[in-house]
Design a protein that fits this description.
By secondary structure, the chain is of the alpha/beta class. Helix content is about 40%, strand content about 15%. The chain folds into two domains: about 290 residues, 3-Layer(aba) Sandwich (UDP-N-acetylmuramoyl-L-alanine:D-glutamate ligase), CATH 3.40.1190; about 130 residues, Protein-Tyrosine Phosphatase, Chain A (Alpha-Beta Complex). The radius of gyration is 21 Å and the shape is globular.
């Protein structure tokens, strides 16, 4: 029996296959094990009123904003997201508060006492930890973010009141498929019979996949891009205000270029819920999503002199927005970019988005899958980028801070784990 949180987490991270460390080797597709595990804990997934959120990019922002809005409306709201950045408990929250260390210890002790076989994956185990905790916390609604894919993801044992699919981009192609349509088929696996689904962005074959699956299951489908739910958006470095929404003007603290598309998806999702959401709750949830939900690392400004921005975007779908946004900054002031990747990431689709007018500090994320920064130097040279390699994010960030003037901008990203290392170093 474990008695401390530290020994519990050490066991969880070292003994259970964890995608964050091992990549594809920790991925266990299929729902049989997670259904059996849920049954061993009383089938909590059957007692939750859920919203299910999938997609290649934007699902974390979307899930967190929906949760923040519903909490602002007076509901007791659960939020399950991944991966965590600093503390494992970030994944499992009720009304923005992380699960307690004692609850984590208690669940793992009860799991180990079961003698459950076969061994579940890290994500299967933590999914049932979350579901059981949410039931015991008597939540009104649970917003559940898919971990990877959709059809075979451990979260897909739920039957939600609403499904949301943000978009499709090439990511995790070794596991989900090598074409957008193939990946869309995996994401479409969260669509349930008769359950409304909102799709944020989808064109061509991808749209056809979602339309066909929704029709097959008699699930009402809304393609958010077909009907913008705001008339205009005013931007500043620290806020976007959406005008002409069904809830009036809505200010948002999330200012990345991709957030305009996310916001439209969220507005459609809120309009499809089987209850009305007050305008004040929508405004409050959007304006304070990070404080309310605990969301971190989405074009987040963490210092202002020099300005330091971090973002967890790590695939071509994310960088198609990050690249132009950084290029705009680079045209106005000196830009320093701390960037790194994991070793199974195809960076050939990301480097073309990196602005040449910047100074690059290449870093290795601290996870086992971290790609040595020196391996990126030849790639940076191919794109005529001025780059230096460092052994850690802390060293790279320190170098960027020393080189940056007060009016400059430092961007940190390329991987969720690069941002995690930065926040851990700062905190």
């Amino acid at each position: 029996m474990f008695t401390t949180y530290k020994e519990t987490i050490d066991w969880l991270f070292s003994q259970i296959p964890m995608f964050q460390n091992l990549g594809a080797g920790a991925y266990k597709p299929g729902l049989d094990t997670v259904r059996r595990l849920s049954h061993a804990f009383g089938d909590p997934h059957l007692r939750l009123r859920c919203i299910h959120v999938a997609g290649t990019n934007g699902k974390g922002s979307t899930a967190s904003t929906i949760a923040a809005v519903l909490q602002s409306a007076g509901m007791r709201v659960a939020l399950y997201t991944s991966p965590h950045l600093i503390d494992f408990r970030e994944r499992i929250r009720v009304n923005g508060q992380m699960i307690s260390e004692a609850e984590v210890v208690d669940f793992i002790n009860r799991f180990r006492a079961l003698g459950f076989e076969p061994q579940p994956s890290f994500f299967e185990l933590t999914t049932i930890m979350a579901f059981e905790y949410f039931v015991r916390q008597n939540v009104d609604i649970a917003v559940i973010e898919v971990g990877l894919g959709g059809r075979l993801d451990a979260t897909n044992i739920i039957t939600p009141m609403l499904s949301v699919i943000t978009n499709i981009s090439l990511d995790h192609t070794a596991l989900l498929g090598t074409t957008p349509a193939a990946i869309a088929r995996e994401k479409a696996g969260i669509i349930k019979p008769g359950v409304p689904v909102v799709v944020g962005e989808a064109e061509g074959d991808v749209r056809a996949v979602f339309a066909a699956r929704a029709a097959e299951l008699s699930a009402p489908v809304t393609f958010a891009q077909d009907a913008p739910m705001f008339t205009s958006a005013d931007r500043s470095p620290f806020e976007i205000t959406y005008h002409g929404t069904p809830w009036g003007d809505v200010p948002s603290e999330l200012t990345g270029d991709c957030q305009l598309l996310n916001a439209n998806t969220i507005f459609h999702a809120l309009s499809k819920l089987p209850f009305a959401v007050p305008a004040a709750a929508v405004a409050q949830g959007f304006a304070h999503v990070c404080q309310i939900s605990g969301l971190m690392g989405r074009w987040a400004t963490i210092a202002r002199s020099p300005r330091v921005i971090c973002d967890t975007g790590h695939n071509p779908g994310g960088w198609q927005y990050l690249g132009p946004q950084l290029a705009t900054i680079a045209a106005e002031s000196a830009l320093h970019v701390v960037i790194g990747f994991v070793n199974d990431k195809d960076v050939s689709h990301i480097f073309p988005y990196l602005p040449a007018r910047a100074r690059y500090y290449l870093a290795k994320p601290s996870v086992e899958r971290g790609r040595p920064a020196a391996e990126l130097l030849p790639i940076a040279a191919q794109y005529a980028l001025s780059a230096t390699a460092f052994d850690s994010v802390a060293e790279a960030y320190q170098a960027a801070r020393q080189a940056a003037a007060e009016a400059d901008t430092i961007f940190v990203g390329g991987s969720t784990f690069i941002v995690a290392d930065l926040l851990t170093y700062i905190k």
